């Protein structure tokens, strides 16, 4: 599911209350309607949207009553800042993902070969702590990113449009690029890219060579 | 800003498009209206909501034209799963946050004392990689959490309500608790807690002692 569809679904307080309820236990329509104080008709409409998106599923019990439950694990992250608006949604990675391939990150948590209930509960506690630490780390990284972008902005003198300057500079940093390549990579019109490059060339920050545009500090 | 208010704001495609536009550069109403193909009146209403929430701000330039820009760094995380629905929003942590206090997490990234543009761009690249690795790690942790909760569920035999069983067991794991204490900690009615504990006592998973309810494996 893409993050836009997920944000549309989650942008409704009653749908969030339904999800919160279903995360505690499977429910049928009347139960949900009474719990959140919304007509069964409106509940059915919310459930239809959630079901179409694959977020919830239903099953019928012995009394032929239809119960809804959450079907999927999904995670959404949104960052809003003067330097960007980004949202991404993803399903939890399966176990075959190798965390040791991370270059800047090491995790220390034991969650293999757990047999006893006590070990499982211990692992649950550790994982919840780690989840919290990862959130804190994300916020720290965001703050560092803004600092670095602010400093780049000061160096380049680009003001509030500095994010696109920084993206441009980061893109030409490792290898020289043409205006066309930069336009495609940054999803911006060629004229905009060309204008930005010319103004940075005037400042002596970038230069055009036979290989394309590059940082003058590389020269 | 709480995550519910943020989700309400972000649950609208046109507001997301406005934020995406403003993250690139400050804009005035007519510009936004033309860019996203929505009437100026509707744009003004979206801007009002975003401004009231503190997400955007405006300033007036020399030609007395009112420009809007993103005012805040804010981060939102949402997790939906059969075991829970959780959302949290937070501002980036300032630099005084000490990442070394994390128990399960180590970061390896250099972003201190950067002077040259080339160093800044290098740090930007490292931080963006780390941001990506942290996202992957979060998804991995989610997947591990579900595995552990599934295993607890199998052990306890609680079916789809196992999240509340797991929370209960995790809460009594480290020290015995009374029904009243558990009700307050888990934000659930006393009767529900008492019933769950009795059923787990029948299974021999927990026991009531003079000090309160505790895991039988501790005994």
From TrEMBL, chains A, B:
SUPFAM superfamilies for this protein: Winged helix' DNA-binding domain
Keyword DNA damage among UniProt keywords: no
Lineage: Archaea, Methanobacteriati, Methanobacteriota, Stenosarchaea group, Halobacteria
UniProt-recorded Gene Ontology molecular function terms: DNA binding; DNA-binding transcription factor activity
Name by which UniProt lists this protein: ArsR family transcriptional regulator
Ranges in a coiled coil: 107-137
Keyword vocabulary terms for this entry: Coiled coil, DNA-binding, Transcription, Transcription regulation
Organism: Natrialba hulunbeirensis JCM 10989
Domain HTH arsR-type: 1-89
